Amino acid sequence: MDYTLKEILETTKACKKVLGYIERNKEKISEFLKVDYSDILFAGCGSSYYLSQSAATTFSRYYKRSSSIPSSEVFIYPDTIFNKRKNLTCITSRSGETSESIIAAKHTKKRGSLLVITCNEESTLSKLADLKIISTDGKEKSIVMTKSFTSMLFGLINLAILSSNFGEEYLNNMLDAIDRSLKINTSNIINEIIDEQFTKFIFLGSGPFYGIANEGMLKIKEMAYNWSEAYSSLEFRHGPIAILDEKTLVTILLSNSGKNYEIKLIEDIKKLGGKTFVISKSKKGIENMGNYNYSIDSELGDYLITPAYLPILQLLAFYTAKNKGINPDKPQNLEYFVKLK
Ligand code: F1P
After folding, report:
1. Which candidate, 14, 26, 223, 312, has a CA 20 to 30 Å from the CA of 217?
2. Considering only CA atoms, which residue is closest to atom 7 of ligand 1?
3. With a cut of 70, which residues of the chain have pLDDT below it?
């Protein structure tokens, strides 16, 4: 089996492991999060930046107002980042060795505390951290990030929940939802989609789903070398909609908060001849809304369901690549992490 596929299918196990890590270090983590930080900034590169986008939205909801930027922006435009109060920076990095993220970490450590989430405990970033969260089983052989992304996001959502004493009872439901999303691997939906040989891929998601939409966009580029774009859902009407044709697949990550608006958008896209793939938590009220549909069948809210949407997008990219005769285990032009020379 291709190891990229094997790693996607190991996602639930990786999430359980990160949960165990958080459980074992609960006291230390709670103490760290009790500090009255004024600004919280998430930063990362590539997939880890998109992970930061989604995590920052979830931290804003459950912990404190947070924002996200690519790591390089931290040291290229430092004046725009921090005020003089007590800051917390969270750097996300699978390898813990990406140059921009290391420079950003050193930079922000001078101005506050540093939280690092990574899959590599022995990395440079882990050693710089005031608090580190390790996704041991998120570690991958594959260059493209899959279970590492999902397990690190799962870990960060758990931190947000822990900080607010909100709903630890939801953790098992989150793991169940991830398991159910992986079932798409044995359904026919992805085969039906790849048979159409779409040439353009658009991913739409709002709030915590925006970072996930960006990651769907990146997976298609990295694995299948297809043109792809991602937008905050309703932004799609403001220009990008002009490129729709019957060979464009628009994947919509349906939310609870924006559902009514998103349903109207799906109808518009279909009227204009684009094809839609609707990923939702529940089928209720939206049966066969898209040209293609996948429902995870979960009662979770928007902020907690996000990790479960990822395996679907990763598998879509994986099989699109295979169908084009591309080996997703060996993507062209990419390295495991970027080292600036
Ligand atoms: C990961 C990353 C990947 C990307 C590429 C280069 O960095 O940016 O997202 O696919 O292969 O590395 P990190 O998470 O290890 O910092």
Report:
1. 14
2. 337
3. 84, 166-167
> How many angstroms does the Cα of residue 331 sit away from the middle of ligand 1?
13
DSSP, residue by residue, 257-299: TTHHHHHHHHHHHHHTT-EEEEEES--TT-TT-SSEEEE----
Ligand 1 pocket residue status of 101, Cβ below 6 Å: yes
Best of 47, 102, 124, 149 for a ligand 1 pocket test (most atoms within 8 Å of beta carbon): 47
Residue 124 CB–ligand 1 contact under 6 Å: no
CB atoms within 10 A of CB 323: 15
pLDDT in tens, 281-299: 998 888 889 999 999 999 9
Does the CA dihedral 74-80-84-90 come out positive or negative?
negative
Residues 82, 87, 93, 97: is their CA dihedral positive or negative? positive
Q: Which of 170, 152, 162, 134 is nearest to 59 (CA)?
A: 162
- Among residues 154, 147, 201, 152, the alpha carbon closest in space to that of 324 is found at 201
Residue 230: strand pairing partners: 203
Q: So what's the pLDDT on residue 81?
A: 83
**Helix 147-164 and helix 171-182: axis angle, to 10°?**
160
Taking the C-alpha atoms of residue 199 and residue 72, their distance in angstroms, rounded to an integer, is 31
Whether this prediction's pTM lies above 0.70 is answered by yes
Question: Is the Cβ atom of 142 under 6 angstroms away from ligand 1?
Answer: no
Residue 274: HSE in the Cβ half-sphere, 13 Å Cα cutoff: 25
Residue among 222, 225, 336, 339 whose CB has most ligand 1 atoms within 8 A, to mutate: 336
Contact (Cβ atoms closer than 8 angstroms) between residue 163 and residue 55: no
